[in-house]
Amino acid sequence: MQRLFYVFLLVMSITNVFAQQKIRGIVRDNETNQPIPLATVLYNNQRIICNKNGGFEITIASSFKLEVASNGYLTKEVLLTGKNDVVLVFLEPSNILMNEVQVTGLSTQRKSLNTPGTIGTITNKDFDRNNGVFLQNTLNLVSGVRMEMRTVAGGTRIVMRGYGNQTNTNNGIGYKAYLNDIPLTDADGSTTLDDVDFDNLGRVEVFKGPSSSIYGTGIGGVITMYNQKAPEGSTVLQSYLSGSDGLIRTNTTLGVGTDKTNLFVNYGHQEINGFRQHHTSRKDFLNINADIYNDEKRSFFVYASYTKTHDLLAGQLDSLNFLNHPDSADVDYIKNDAFSDIESARVGLTQEYKFSDNFSNKTT
Fold first, then answer.
1. Which residue has the higher pLDDT, 45 or 235?
2. Residue of 172, 170, 173 whose CA lies nearest to 311
3. Number of other residues whose CB lies within 10 A of the CB of residue 127
4. d(CA 276, CA 112)
5. What is the pLDDT of residues 278-310, one digit of tens each?
């Protein structure tokens, strides 16, 4: 009888051991998709502090809830069922004032206070202050940056710290631009942003001064743009925006956000007549973003876009017409029906592999 009792205890112990499961998790910012270091994870009256890469590791025996918190973010509860070995937790930023903001645009991964140069960051909250259709309304709030448009929605000209475009042309000389880690600047140094859907941007970083040298020499600065990410769960959105001068913008958005995948698909149609004659603009955008988190070390990011634009050109005005008839157009431009058509497609694939906490490789 005593032997049977020992055998019963042994079987119960083995069952308890095999019922436990080790789960690894990563805490990330919902807007920037960057890891949140030193976040707090509470479960079963235990407290775990995440490492500097936002990672944590726990052992569970059954399904239960985690409570994840960090300074500057809203506390979130996550239900673990034991089905996944790797769990991604996205925290929503709060309106709490923080002492310091981490900027991750530099390859050195330094804090902004230790970075030799000025870096401007534009987030969703900044875009929400304007309509989001015209990037210059938000980008011109960054010191040392001036963005102008040749037409009502095209012909972008950007000057950083007074460098580049001294001849008042719209060839995009003097700076570099990247969209989802894909370079938009050609080999001759010219940059065209007419086929970029500004209404879908979720974050923009502006590098000026010595910090821009990590992207090359002979430039006044660098602009890196990233599209929006889908929120958690499945979402289908239809939005409509109208404004003065015949502005119409529609968006049809599909979003899927899980622990393993983040899919964001958007089709946008935009029309505007402009305040001048012969100044109509029509644009169609299709953007697809897919983030695939294979495991805690390897991640894939896929970006594809198709753009078709048609912009009528109003031409230049002399000083007399500018003062008396600012809404008029150049007669020769009207006779020749001057216009600008752009049809472009982009496809990009990025792989990020983390060898250790201090060393990682990102290939696009």
1. 235
2. 170
3. 22
4. 43
5. 889 999 999 999 999 887 888 899 999 999 999
* pTM (two decimals): 0.66
- Are 122 and 137 in contact, with CB atoms under 8 Å apart? no
Q: Which pLDDT score, from 0 to 100, does residue 167 have?
A: 55
Q: Pick one of 2.60.40.1120, 2.30.40.10, 2.40.50.870, 3.65.10.10 as the CATH number of 2-91.
A: 2.60.40.1120
* Those residues with Cβ within 8 angstroms of residue 213's Cβ, 6 or more apart along the chain or in another chain: none
- The contacts of residue 127 (CB under 8 Å, 6+ apart) are 138, 201, 202
> According to the model, what pLDDT value does residue 40 have?
93
- On the CB side of 169, how many CA atoms lie within 13 Å of its CA? 11
Kindly state the tokens that stand for 286: 């299709």
Length of the chain: 364
Cα separations in angstroms, 154 against 79, 104, 170, 190, 356: 47, 30, 10, 15, 44
* CA distance linking residue 43 with residue 128, whole number of Å: 36
* Better-scored residue on pLDDT, 300 or 7: 300
165-199 as b/e: b if 16+ CB within 10 A = beeeebbbbbbbbbbbbbebbeeebebbbbbbbbb
For the chain, domain boundaries: 2-91, 112-227, 233-363
Calpha distance 227→289 (Å, rounded): 8
Q: List, for residues 83-98, the tens digit of each pLDDT value.
A: 767 888 999 888 655 5
Of the candidates 136, 144, 138, 210, the one whose C-alpha atom is nearest the C-alpha of residue 170 is 136
Using only the alpha carbons of the chain, give its radius of gyration.
Answer: 26
CATH number of this structure's domain 112-227, picked from the four choices 2.170.130.10, 2.40.340.10, 1.10.10.10, 3.30.565.10: 2.170.130.10
- Where is 177: in which H helix or E strand? strand 175-179
Beta bridge partners of 115: none
- Sequence-distant (6+) residues with CB within 8 A of 134 are 149, 153, 198
Task: Give, in order, the Cα–Cα distances in Å from 345 to each of 48, 149, 300.
Answer: 46, 22, 20
Task: Kindly state the tokens that stand for 137.
Answer: 């309304």
